[in-house]
Design a protein that fits this description.
The protein starts with a helix and ends with a helix. Helices cover about 30% and strands about 25% of the residues. It is of the alpha+beta class. The protein is globular, with a radius of gyration of 27 Å.
Amino acid sequence: MIMEASMRTTLGNEQLQRRWRPVAWLALVSFMLNPLLAVAQTTIDVSGPLKPGDRIQVTVPGRPELDQQIVVDATGAVTIEPVGSVHLGGLNLAEAGVLLKQKLRLFYPTLDTVYLEAGRSGTVRIYVLGAVAQTGMLNFDAEPSLWDVLRSIGGPLDSANLSEARVIRETDGVPEVHPVNLSGLMIGEDVGEFAMKDGDTLIIPSLQEGIPGVNAADGVKIFGSVGVPTVVPIKTGTPLMDVLMLAGAPTQTANKERIYWVHNDGIRNQAKVVDLSAYLMYGDEEGNPLVYPGDTISVEYTRPSWVRANVPFILGSLAALATIWLAYDRIVNP
């Protein structure tokens, strides 16, 4: 009786294993063939876009000469050997991994796996505002000099008033203003020692702010997925496309179908969504309206679809389960 029950149990287990074995193989094959999983299974998924100062550890199994640490610069680009400069602005870590693998495969066609890990950011945070190539927060491993900061954000704009720059530093909860003259930096002159500290904010005003009778608001404020978020000075109605070109043009990650435009009609602010792609594809003038001094333009980033964001995780989990099941099956049925 006991032997009979044991045989029935064994037969039942074998039938169950035969039934689920094709499913396990199917999950594993689906994972291996899925083009969305160009990055290794263990790639960290960072939901937010990469920003200047972020460090990324690149590891390529079997090719130690390609292992390297890269840093996102002020323009959103990284330098990776042997590819060179690659723009990652607006991408999260998983999306960056897909792009970097595609670039590396141009040099190594048989390359199969690329691991990306978020590296440790610097412990000194510096904020930069004003007439510079890239505003925002930067990370440094040690207290940087003013030249280190200027170099990291891509330098000042032509309209920058370097002689009127200032550093805002909070001491015991009280903000302090430290005027700094940076006009000599760009021609190699010594501007004196001034070490930036964690939490400092460097502000470089525009020349417009120092010209009597000229309002700094006499321009279009542009931010989001453009080459250089800035204020574009205009005097009269100017086509949206012309203004965007003066801000470095929309980037590859820009959602040209949803550009937010805020305009004051003299009574109140009015917001409108502009479809620039309609102008670019069909010449529809509604997609290229006239914008005016004082207007605000926000160019949205393209957001990945639910499938692109979640399918890699789902298939990765299925592949892991399939691998465990197949290993168990090999042990039980050698």
